[in-house]
Amino acid sequence: MKTRNIYLSLVLIFIITYSYGQARLGSTIDDIKKEFTDPSLKLTPWFDKGMAYIDITIPRALVVYSFNTEGICAMTVIIPNTVGNLNYYVERYNNSYVILSTTKWRMYNDTGSFLIELKYPEEGGYWLIWTFE
Q: I need a labelling partner for 35 at 20 to 30 A (CA). Which of 16, 23, 65, 96 fits?
């Protein structure tokens, strides 16, 4: 029984880390809210100047989903909480997507193509931005 619980825990951790770090561009506010039902994840909706946002704290990062006026996710920002986690995302993107430069990738799927950019602002910090191309 203990082995089964350990196995299930590892699978759950993998699913949370892998799936909850995705951009979900094109999803609606309700789609994203329905997906994040795990009580260990902090899901926070907020509004600013007529725009809707949802942020969620996951084990590796803070993820912010930005919605257009139709309530469709048009941009996702992933803010890794450590440099090690940033390196995790960069390595994952290098292995999964088309590399455009050391800070840019392109992802293709059945809904279109997406641009992923790693930003390092002058004032410090780092984040990854996903947008429609």
A: 96
Question: Quick one: 36 exposed, middle or buried, by C-beta within 10 A (0-12, 13-18, 19+)?
Answer: middle
Per-residue pLDDT tens listing for the chain (133 residues): 444 444 433 333 333 333 334 678 888 878 887 877 776 666 677 777 667 888 888 889 999 999 888 888 999 999 999 999 999 999 999 999 999 999 999 999 887 899 999 999 999 999 999 999 8
Q: What is the pTM of this model?
A: 0.76
Residue 130 identity (one-letter amino acid): W
- Write out the DSSP string of 34-60: HH---TTSEEEEEEETTEEEEEEE-SS
What are the domain boundaries of the chain? 2-132
**Whole-number Å distance between alpha carbons of 65 and 33:** 11
118: Cβ contacts below 8 Å, ≥ 6 apart: 86, 90, 103, 104, 126, 127, 128
CA-based nearest residue to 63, from 75, 51, 47: 75
